[in-house]
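Bench log. Compound arrived from synthesis this morning; before running ITC I wanted a structural hypothesis for how nickel (II) ion sits in the protein. Inputs:
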Amino acid sequence: MKLRYFSHSAFQITTDNKISILIDPFLEGNPNAPVKQSDITADYIILSHAHGDHIGDAFKIAKRCNSTFICVNELANYCADKGFKAHNMHIGGSHKFDFGRIKFTIAHHGSMTPDGTYGGEPAGILLFIEGKTIYHCGDTGLFYDMKLIGEMNPLDYMLVPIGDNFTMGIDDAVKAVELANPKTAIPMHYNTFPVINADPYEFKKKVEAVGKNCIVLNFNQEIEL
Ligand code: NI
Ligand code: MN
């Protein structure tokens, strides 16, 4: 499978069977977005929470591609109310889809849609696909249960917000990596707006200093997992 990074918290996973899964596709209005929403397709769109910088272009893409949303119950209902296909889940629950299994974790943050609708609890996302486990933390502060998440679900990749202000900053994100203990950490949610400017190479250096591995993805870079 392939993992492609669009900047902010937006990723695309393409499975070996060519199933496209988008996470938090924030492109329009994202000054770092390397592609337009019309450039990409999605069979599934997973949203970590309802903030505008995570819903992003999800509805435009879903309308064009007939994508299925996967999110926590309240946010899934919001998508369904707009006429989209949605699979309702909630924190702690997992479900097997045709591409693999998804499980939602806690995340300490807020979740209201841009139009003021309650979006349910914000979440982190565990993806179990083709024998690999990926943890997209969503937007969150540091929490000690990341240790439990890593123990129960040995992680290959951890996608970690480092931009500070709305989420963990670099030092908390390094501690998060120490707690969850992934094989590889990948920083996200930085440099989109001045208030979340952070140097991903400082994060990488600090992660390596505690004996862990880190890859900084360029915007639009795609890697084989
Ligand atoms: Ni947010
Ligand atoms: Mn955010």
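What the model suggests: The mean pLDDT is 98. Residues 49, 51, 54, 109, 139, 166 surround nickel (II) ion (ligand 1) (CB under 6 Å).
ITC booked for Thursday regardless.
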